[in-house]
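Async update (no meeting this week)

Hi team, since we skipped the sync, here's where things stand on the single-chain job. The sequence we agreed to prioritize is pasted below, unchanged from the tracker. I ran it this morning and attached the output directly underneath so nobody has to dig for it. Comments welcome in thread, and please keep replies under the output.
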Amino acid sequence: MRYKVTLEQVFKYIIWLGLAVVLFSPLYLNRGLFFPYIVTKTIAFNVAIEIMLLAYLLLAWKNKKYQIRVNLVVFLFAVYILLTFVSSLLGDNFYRSFWSNNERSEGILLLLHLFVLLVIMSGFLRQFRDWLKVFDLFFLASLLQGFIALGQFWGLPWILASSGEQRLAGTIGNAGYMAGYLMFAIFLGIFLIAKKKQIYWKIYYLAGIFLSIFIVIFTETRGAWVALGLCGLAVIVYLLFYYWSRAWLKILGVTIIILAMVALLLLWANKNSSFVANNRILNRMTEVSLNTRTAQNRLIAWQSAYLGFKDRPILGWGYENYYQPFDKYFNPKIYRHEGSVVWFDRAHNLIFDRLVAGGILGLGSYLAFLILPFCYLWRYYFKKAEHKNKYFLPVVFSLIALAYFIQNLFIFEALVIYVPLFMVLAFVGLYAPYYQVRIFDRLSFRVVVALIWLVAIIPIVYLVNVKPLQANMELFSILVGKDAKVEQKIDLFKSLLARDTYGNQEYRKQLHFFLEDFKNDLDTTIKNNPEQVEKIINQYSPTIIELSNFTKAQINRQIEENPYSASNYLLAMKYNNFVFTRIKRFDILAENTKLFNQAKTLSPKRQHIYFELGYTYLHLAQALKTTGQDDLAQEAYQVAISQFEFALSLNDHNFESYKQLIFANILAGYNESAINLYTLAKNTGVAVNEITVLSQIIATAEFADNTEMIQYFSDKLKSSNQID
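Output:
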């Protein structure tokens, strides 16, 4: 007898396939994209959700049993999205709040897709056995992720190298995310061990759990270690009191706890020993101090968030807008050296991120979404007499939520964390109240909604996924296309920016870098071919003019689209300074004063904007000097030096600020000041590559034709080389 597949079954198969795509999404990676670790997963997730929604609505049309069900979890997240939407509308940049960017790929758009995932899971997965299948799919995906990370640990040449270098990151691309993702797998594995009777299943889950624990350790994520340690200890304590009845199991549990505590005490007591100091993992475990760079950065980010929250305490700044209070309350101490990370768009803390984005209402609604469903889970088990002695399910799932919460006090979420989190919350929603929405019972409503989505899905898939993906791929082809002609790359830039996608703010910065690289390469070509200077200039002059004008127009658009970002004004200042060094148009430099004032209003203590204005006046001074206007040149030098001095005053333990001020004094001919600054900088005790810095100082002195400084710092360089 032939098996007949009904239309209803087809819809179910599509939903199951979509769930598999979603659960395996952390494994997806296309290296041919800009921000490949994020964008690849997000595009796959979005498309899967959009197709699943169509199948689910059609299924609900065919069978009333699968109509939309509004339980507490769905309701609470809907409230959170509504409040986020309102706060973002009242914020300064709703477009960014809604669409986000390539680097994060979050925004309200992702929240809406996650909401749809909740609705589908809550309405489609109604049997406990269905949820066990979902957990098994997730566990299998995590196991594959663990094997990839294990290959990275072993250094297998045919396995993708970890983007975290020694810290294992798998295809997730971030060690912190990797740790958070695998913690879900560890505790779900514990749950599944108890639900499967066959010994081979138990061995399978146990092996996966140990693999995940091993990988979490070698992600070197301390927040995850704390979360895993505390919640793992809670599991053992629970098993001792409520689950393990045999004496040998109780002895084993107590022994594990005692050994763990003794090991930690010994480790801490010997943290200064060579054994601990020379071991990367052990050293990181004992490196717990508020004085570490990571801890200081977190505290500074949290402080900016708190001050921003005080400005807008009720509804916050809007989703994805943390960079605004961070700029406004920028702490100069976070800028320690040239390579410091100084542009933050997250507070690296679940509480502060939600406070900035949505204020008290946003944070309160999100915490209610995380906590209230578990209250009803426990209430259900308290009422069921047969469960009173064990509470295994609520214990394990509550510890999953607790582990998530603890780790996210030190990091922020991403899609790879949201997927298992929403899976767990949708499952817990089985035990929460349901609310009757009468309109969902009507066939006419289900038909209309299904038909609307059937018509809308293709344009939505294109606008949300295909169009941004095309722009992203075009940028990547520019970045890696070594053999492509400059004119072809300019056309690609025009094409991708004309698509007008949410990535344009990122793409325009890449356009500016492209202009700088092209012009620097051209300068090198001219320098190496002095006999062909005129020919080279004639050949590339039209291209340079076209590219410069296009870049200028795009930077102006950059500011128009987001006038609340200090980095956009700084980008415009950099462009003007770059162009002035080539064409010496004084009106370009005059514009920088206006841009500086706008950037200063947004971020008054950010050293970089003072650096850039200092460069502006240095360029002006050099131009005046070459035309014989020495008095005016000295005035310009004085203004430049005053900007670098103010930047240094913001943080006098930053060698980069000293270095910029030394450069300015050498160019101005203030040799004694340059020497004194170098001596003072050395006495700050800031770690610096002295040979590199001295080489840069000598190069500046050579540019200024300052013989005294060339000689002085060359002697310093010789002494450093002899010491080395």
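Quick observations from my side:
The chain has a mean pLDDT of 91.
DSSP finds 29 helices and two strands in the chain.
Reply here if anything looks off.
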